[in-house]
Amino acid sequence: MNEKKNTLMIAAFAKATVIMLLLGLFAPVLAYAATPPEQYKTVQEQYQISQERVRDAQQSYQDSKEKFLDAKACLEDSRTSGTIFDLKNATRVFLLHTIDYIIIRLEAMEDSAIKAEGCGFAQFEISDNIGVYIDQLEELKDDVEAAETREEFQAIFNEIRDIWQHANLESRYFILGTANNRVDSFLERGESISDRIKAEIERLADAGVDTTELERLQDEYNYALKDVENSYNKATQLFDEHNGFDDNGVFDDAEDAREFLDEASGLMGETQQQLRDGNSVLREIFSELKEHRPGSADLSGTGKLIASGDGKATMSGDMEAKISARGGILTITDYDGNAEVDVTGYGTKEDIGDGVVRYSGFDGTAGISGSSVTVVILGDDIELTLEGTGSAVLRGYGTYDVEKDGRHISSNDWAPPHAGDMNQNRAGDMNQDQAGDMNQDQAGDMNQDQAGDMNHNQAGDMNHNQAGDMNHNQAGDMNQDQPGDMNHNQAGDMNQDQTPDENSAVGTGGS
Questions:
Q1: Which of 32, 82, 177 is nearest to 510 (CA)?
Q2: 131-175: per-residue pLDDT in tens?
Q3: Please, what sign has the CA dihedral across residues 297, 301, 305, 310?
Q4: C-beta separation of 373 from 335 below 8 A
Q5: Cα 72 from Cα 187, distance rounded (Å)
Q6: Buried (b) or exposed (e) across 346-361, using 16+ Cβ within 10 A?
Q7: What would the pLDDT profile of 194-218 be if each residue is shown by its tens digit?
């Protein structure tokens, strides 16, 4: 194998692992929602272990490749029985390390596929197929050990090529099909969101609010949903036919399979853009609705929030805050590590870690500034002033005013408190306020189906487009430059341009 083909093969293997790691994004949302920090840590640890195994296998592959190339160069300089023997052994070792490298890649695919299959959207059960290919590669090791002739090496190369082609095309089919199946659930949630937006617009109209812009945006959002549905239906028809694959996801015609996957990838790319368009409109809608919802305020640069009341206030952003309260719990998270904090009048101070500090028995004042901070105050007689760029959610009983450039913009009441707000005092509340309450202020607690979920679906479902593109390139690389073609530059080199005696030595395995 020449240097270029070795490089392409390595690149193709690397792409395969990236592709299957994307499958982890298809895992159920709720599985990650239960304990995010623990889940994230576990996933990271598993990823690191997998990467270490891949790096070790890749290094062995590279080392054996270099030795093979050295043996090949020696044969070209001096064609003797000894150099032929050395090249045969170098080829054997290189093939064994190549098989080990592919197996580790396939094992990563298999693990990710099993997770994806558990989400209920899988197009078919690919993990069993991958397991079969791993077993086939393991069995090939005995053939490599026993190979002596050009024909035997050729047969091994062809089998490796065939196994890789199956894994490549079938993994691409699995990723695209699984992504497409999730689009249907997105459409259902999108329709539910649209119904809630409509109800909210009607409520505002009844209250005398001009809803012309909101109605226009909702129409635009509904058009985007319709476009997604049209693309989804076309893609679903393709997947129902699945040309080039049998009902178990095993390809039976490479040309038909590639044509089907290319067309499906194109349709899914359209869906990705349509999802982005819908998400963009939805954000505009929520931004409009927030202007009319109590307990929520957005500040930008010259904005200022002044609030007083009893309950719970959550503030996040690049800001400067002045707070006082009675009998409260104050939690500060400094994401950038540059916050300046001055707190007086508190019972205990607890450094929770990861930039989180909690003051219990807070009965005084606090001055806080930072480029990326989240502040949560839970208590009575809360008085706060917030300036900068960010957001605030106020729940309980109180009032607030918003100013911009020194002009009064709006006044409103705090949003009604949640059932447990007045008793929550865990450090985890800070994260819940940032990820949960910041969405709950949008369009009447529609957060469970809002932009956050849409972003998750885009990040998970639509990464298939990247995967599809990589698989397309991978298919080209591996079909043109994979082990089958190695034969012409490896095993073949051991025979061509040699003397009759040298050919005989290779063919018979003699010295």
A1: 82
A2: 999 999 999 999 999 998 878 888 898 899 899 899 989 989 998
A3: positive
A4: yes
A5: 58
A6: beeeeeeeebbbbbee
A7: 999 999 899 888 878 888 999 999 9
